[in-house]
Automatic annotation (TrEMBL):
Residues 30-280 form the Protein kinase domain. PANTHER family: SERINE/THREONINE-PROTEIN KINASE IAL-RELATED. It catalyses: L-threonyl-[protein] + ATP = O-phospho-L-threonyl-[protein] + ADP + H(+); L-seryl-[protein] + ATP = O-phospho-L-seryl-[protein] + ADP + H(+). Residues 1-10 have a biased composition (Low complexity). Belongs to the protein kinase superfamily. This is non-specific serine/threonine protein kinase. The keyword Isomerase does not apply. There is a cross-link at residue 155 (Glycyl lysine isopeptide (Lys-Gly) (interchain with G-Cter in SUMO2)). Keywords: ATP-binding, Cell cycle, Cell division, Kinase, Mitosis, Nucleotide-binding, Serine/threonine-protein kinase, Transferase. GO terms for molecular function: ATP binding; protein serine/threonine kinase activity. The gene is LOC101584661. Residues 1-24 are annotated as: Disordered. Its EC number is 2.7.11.1.
Amino acid sequence: MASGSPLPLQAEPPAPPGPAARRPLTIDDFDIGRPLGKGRFGSVYLARLKDSHFIVALKVIFKSQVEKEGMEHQLRREVEIQAHLQHPNILRLYNYFHDARRVYLILEYAPRGELYKELLRSHTLDEQRTATIMEELADALAYCHAQKVIHRDIKPENLLLGFRGEVKIGDFGWSVHTQSLRRKTMCGTVDYVPPEMIHRNTYDEKVDLWCLGVLCYELLVGSPPFESTSHNETYRRILQVDVQFPRSMPEGARDLIARLLRFQPEERLPLSQILAHPWVKARSRRLLPPCAQWEMLIKMDALSARVFGSVLTVHRAGAMREIVLAPTLRSHFQLSLGFRVAPPPGAPLCSLHLDSQVHDQTLAHASAQ
């Protein structure tokens, strides 16, 4: 998918290569492991496909709870958006299925859990870790905005950690796909709400810039900048942009946060300038997985690729190249190349397509969790 083109939510994705679609998945196709977390409408479990031993996170949502809260439309929107996003710092949604009582979302497994829990344990993060997260999220949000998606709820609770500690946006419950990138709905989390939402003004993707500023402050200080004893007091401080920087705040981080937490949305630092900010460039230690770099080449140059055991075979213009992959990279490639999402518009169920030539789909580190 080209980064500048809008997200094709209303058009059926191209048919996957390889064999015809298998029968629809059911819960009996999975071995269910330990619980990974609990949400508003259900729980998330470590799971493994029985036929391939492929490790995933299985989110189980109770239909009765969704219907009780009138959230059917929001759930469908969340699935449609996340299923079409492919970025190293966005949790993949591979597919979904359902039965009479539940909806099941097949998600990428993030072995290191939630950023929120890491923050609870350590209270604050150091400059290097925080700057790395800022770079990862700025890049991921730039991709989302290019696909006409506004996230609207960036916060530690919605961020997961991959095998190498990389951040992955893992919850798109409040996200929206809109051609105009302009909305009016009040949503998100109290401490992270931008001034234009409180005023009920029309807003655009720049609400995500405000959230990045709040997040950067919370990671370095241990609490959000506008946290107060009541919602009304929090809103008052947000509208006044009443930010109090502790003396321990690094000057570079203070500059970045101050340039993101601007009352006027058009004055907020653009995502491209976050990536180029001196503090981010000097402190970030972002490691883009080599497989993610190859995925970009595959998408841009229409390469064909297959994984046979531990060997990645890439074909381009009649030439062939073979690369031996380390176990974790092999798993990531198989995960990326072996699964295809194909949800027809309005369909209640879509099946999971597995390339018959993809084998040995095991995450070595998963068994140690």
